[in-house]
Amino acid sequence: MISFNQVRLTAFASGLALLTSFPVSALDIQPIGEIQIGQGEGYAEMLRYHAASQSLVVTASETGTIERISIATPSALSLMSPFDLDGGDVTAVAVHRDLIAASIKVKPADAAGMVKLFDSDGSLLATYETGALPDNLAFSPDGRYLLTANEGEPSDDYSIDPEGGFTLIDLSSGPQDATVTQIALTGFDVPTGARIIKPGQSFAADAEPEYVAFSADGTMAYATLQENNAIALIDIAAKKVTNIVGLGVKNVSRMSHDMSNKDDGINMRRWPVLMMYQPDALATYKVNGATYLVTANEGDAKDYDGFSEETRVAKLTLDPTMFPNAEELQKPENLGRLKTTTTMGDTDGDGDHDLIYAYGGRSFSIWSQDGSLVFDSGNAFEHLIAKRSPDVFNANGGADEKDDRSDDKGPEPEALALGTIDGRTYAFIGMERNNAIFAYDITLPSDPHLVGYMMPSANHNSPEGLEFIAAKDSPTGKPLLAIAFEMTGTVALYQID
Question: Taking the model in full, what pTM does it have?
């Protein structure tokens, strides 16, 4: 369990210092093309770039296809023939040279999923069996390996709860003769700074791997265990999980956040709350021989008909010693509306809550490969949105829903992409709820700087996937950022100057 002893203090001053003015090296991110794949949710989710054909490959779970978009003429994006997945519920796509892989989940909850491997023309090369619900996948930098994060979500009634894990596909002998290894999370106790959510579960069953990324040399891979507030370290040669690192929490009493949707607007205040990071997307980069992990700290809870940890602070019995002002705190305009968990917070076992936890860090973080926190953007996202785009502050889409997500996970940083421009490394982070896109120069991991902010047009809602396209691979000769917007079924292309 997480306690004050595992609170990680955050260094976010550099993010806040640039709220009023960008540095000279600011990035200008401008839209240059867009396209509609389908009306509504499920047509544009995760995406990757195939450089040789100057095309984007985009997951469309609604149609069970990998959609392809030509960006050869950026101002006139056009649909190409899709890859047919036989109606499969596609979750992610990965690209290495002329290999394109798609992960597909299968019902019921404990059924094995699959990876389908195609060439760039759409010919199916091979199909591989994975663990339950492969939710994300990635190629190693040299293309030898494919790795999936098998989320293993329970059935809604919780009668079935498969173990989370990973599938490693070794392509060194060719697609038809690949070696497939299932990598388990068994044998691990809950690490310090992480958690088991459902009482009585093993860590392997409780864990739900969300996102995977390889190190630059391909020897290690890393995976977010979002609900459990942890990261798994995978040794590729050994084909096993070597460690699980708990991410701890940050203390909201040291920084301000808006945690109510009933406070009549933007009210950034300090509260006696511990905030779990719970990252979704993950990326890695290398600096002076060291690997660093970058995470988008969205947050998530287990909430099923058969078991739910979710409640609101107003429904907790707060310890009178720790919270002598409980009645005031639990008013809806204060902390009463904040979503929290019933499974943690009673540190002395007397039936009341001594600590209050919130889901998601509302930030992005940089970690060393051993899980030590190097940087966190703190409350910079909320502060900047409040200043630059107050009409969509913590909104669930449009301006008519301003402040609607303050009681939940705020802007919900979810999508993430890294890119190199003129020798400097940048992180691009997308907010699921109010659509904002932030750019940080992360060349020095301990001292990132905010260098760009962009709010997409009203045609687009909920950035789910981000893809950076380097200048050398771009049809314009300049770096590009491609974004898939989940709720509107749209893809947009932005040029970076």
Answer: 0.95
